[in-house]
Design brief:
Length: 668
């Protein structure tokens, strides 16, 4: 579709913004000592050059007790010169306008990093840090409000175009707003008006610090998605109060970090949370910005056309592709590196204490280190295997000027990516395959499908470089009965090669593949999203009946694994959602369970309580894979440059495969 609204300019209190896209603040872990450094500067500059309309450089800590060394501190003047230099460069080179976001974590702050107890409206333990904060005194409140104001003045001094107050995601202002975390009995607690007082006073102090002409925004939770906390109604009411206190825009995101409602995972439908912005839009007259799962340009355009919002936020999509706005505007959509909401390189790695990456963009956070330069000596390169590693290698090598031919023995590219996008809720992964396919075609990679690269072909063509990315194959375990006709591979089932699936199903292997296969089987006899939306819209059944219908499978499905935990290779930000889905679907998980034998109608297993049998009309094997690397072994010592990539080398996740293919191609 035509992306017209996305590139309409918008003016917020005299600030002219070239288009309707905004990059929100993101925790990146690119600094370890509160400072603005060259790595952060390179990250932000690349995305400003990519055409984003409004870009948040932050979050910025307002005081040490509510900050962390991994974010830039603005509780003193030390970072102002570096921020000013960055903002001046962005303004000189691009049309991008910049926002400084002010953050205080409250009870989410961890004493291990701050060296002091966290503070919050009430001494209620944090589910994030497992620590109990100190209840803020009136003097604490006064000092913290002043810290917001002082930091806001520094934002202005650093030549930002706007300042944004963070009041969402369960952080300090949100903690004052919510009855879950605010049990105070003074003027800052109790009824709604009192619980909004701290937030309103922060806005007042910030406005006074920056003056009437400077843009002040606020980022709120459109719904806390926490039991007995704020819904979209209360959040919208607070937005209206914020407008009365002179806020110039409302940036709406989803719930708290603690919520058990998926916000950002790939099973969240694109645009699912636009309604949160719409609820706010109904109660305010200032611009409203929508967030979460809007990376698809068509979905973003439709959200803007609907009138539910005035701008849209692209966070993770700008990690995946810093040129996303320019590519859309210039109709280079074939070149977009899509965010698939996998969370593997961003949130998972962040919560593991490592700097943010993107599994589809190896340069994310390494903009100065990984630079694609044209080759001075073009080489003839043959690639064996059209999985992710082979495709990424071929693409990058061709972009650099090499002559690349890719051989794939099956009738389609993708390799194990085809399996990754098959489970229910993982359809978004198909965008990766489409993107890679479009890009290798544009850059002239010659692709031969249904053609296996053989040793004779290699000897005849005499390439300068042979890249072996021939993938892996399922392994078999020596169990009696494993060759029975009702035993199938998870890979075959996910590729729709298994027509008959019995009422009682046992999945052997509790990895990501096994658990996602089990969930896919459970969803086969439940209505899909479109059907559920139709039935709900027309009130065809009661809400309780529809809820049961959406979860209940006709099959009895059991997942067994010898390990003591399931889905150990699933990232923490996605695992809880997967486990929740398995539970809702009624799937039985049996860790510490060893398969002993497969019989015609059951499996025999060993558990901590002894042997038992589990009924099984179908047994699905998901016990791992082994590399296929015969070509590498044959040619590695024959005088040519031979590379081994992806699963052909060892078991790889998607990010490893992309990075290995990319970095190997930079080196040839």
């Amino acid at each position: 579709m035509e992306h017209i609204k996305l590139f309409e300019p918008i003016t917020i209190k005299g600030l002219e913004i070239s288009n309707r896209t905004m990059m929100p603040a993101m925790g990146l872990l690119y600094t370890m000592d509160y400072t603005m450094n060259d790595r952060l500067k390179a990250f932000y500059l690349e995305r400003a050059r990519g055409g984003i309309g409004l870009m948040t450089i932050g979050p910025l800590g307002v005081e040490p007790a509510g900050s962390v060394p991994f974010m830039v501190g603005l509780y003193d003047d030390s970072n102002v010169p570096a921020l000013r230099e960055l903002n001046d460069q962005i303004h000189a080179e691009t049309k991008t306008k910049t926002v400084g976001q002010l953050l205080h974590q409250g009870r989410y702050a961890h004493s291990m990093f701050t060296g002091q107890p966290s503070i919050a409206p009430s001494p209620i333990a944090s589910n994030i840090t497992r620590e109990t904060p100190r209840e803020m005194t009136r003097e604490d409140i006064k000092n913290t409000i002043k810290a917001y104001a002082d930091s806001a003045a520094r934002v202005k001094a650093a030549h930002y175009d706007a300042v944004e107050i963070l009041a969402c995601t369960g952080y300090l202002i949100n903690q004052f707003l919510s009855p879950l975390t605010n049990k105070r009995t003074d003027e800052y607690g109790g009824p709604f008006e009192n619980r909004t007082r701290f937030g309103r006073e922060v806005i007042q102090a910030v406005r006074k610090a920056v003056g009437d002409d400077f843009v002040v925004g606020i980022r709120i939770s459109g719904n806390d998605f926490m039991p007995a906390s704020h819904t979209n109604v209360e959040s919208s009411d607070f937005a209206a109060l914020a407008e009365k206190e002179s806020v110039d825009y409302i940036n709406v995101t989803g719930g708290w970090h603690e919520t058990n409602i998926p916000q950002l995972t790939s099973n969240v439908p694109s645009g699912a949370y636009v309604y949160l912005a719409r609820g706010v839009k109904e109660k305010v007259g200032i611009p409203v910005i929508a967030s979460n799962r809007l990376g698809d340009p068509d979905v973003a355009e439709k959200a803007l056309r609907s009138g539910a919002c005035d701008m849209i936020c692209w966070g993770r999509p700008m990690l995946a592709d810093p040129e996303l706005p320019n590519k859309i505007k210039e109709k280079r959509t074939w070149e977009i590196i899509p965010c698939i909401a996998c969370n593997q390189g961003c949130f998972d790695i962040l919560f593991g204490g490592q700097p943010v990456r993107c599994i589809l963009n190896p340069r994310c956070g390494l903009e100065e280190q990984l630079v694609e330069t044209p080759t001075d000596s073009p080489k003839k390169i043959l690639v064996a295997g059209g999985g992710v590693a082979g495709m990424q290698f071929a693409l990058t090598a061709a972009k650099r000027g090499h002559d690349v031919t890719l051989y794939e023995k099956s009738d389609r590219l993708g390799g194990q990516l085809i399996l990754a996008m098959a489970p229910t809720g993982k359809e978004e992964f198909g965008r990766i395959l489409q993107s890679l396919t479009d890009r290798i075609a544009h850059y002239g990679v010659k692709v031969l499908l249904n053609t296996e690269l053989t040793p004779d072909m290699i000897r005849e063509q005499k390439p300068d470089v042979l890249a072996v990315a021939s993938g892996a194959k399922p392994i078999s375990i020596p169990i009696p009965g494993v060759d029975k006709p009702h035993v199938v591979e998870a890979w075959d089932l996910l590729q729709d090669k298994v027509a008959n699936i019995g009422k009682n199903v046992v999945v052997v292997g509790g990895s990501a593949t096994g658990c996602e296969t089990a969930h896919t089987i459970a969803c086969m006899d439940t209505p899909d999203e479109a059907a559920m939306a139709f039935l709900t819209y027309h009130q065809a059944e009661t809400p309780d009946f529809l809820a049961t219908l959406s979860h209940k499978s006709l099959r009895k499905i059991t997942v067994i694994d010898v390990l003591d935990r399931m889905a150990t290779n699933v990232g923490r930000t996605s695992k809880w959602s997967l486990m929740k889905s398995l539970k809702l679907s009624g799937i039985t998980l049996k860790p510490q369970t060893k398969l002993l034998e497969i019989k015609d109608d059951c499996v025999v297993v060993e558990t901590p309580d002894g042997q038992e049998t589990i009924p099984a009309d179908t047994v699905v094997m998901a016990v791992g894979a082994a590399p296929v690397n015969a070509l590498f072994n044959e040619f590695k010592d024959q005088g040519m440059e031979v590379l081994l990539l992806g699963d052909a080398k060892a078991t790889r996740n998607l990010g490893d495969a992309v990075r290995e293919g990319y970095e190997s191609a930079l080196a040839v």
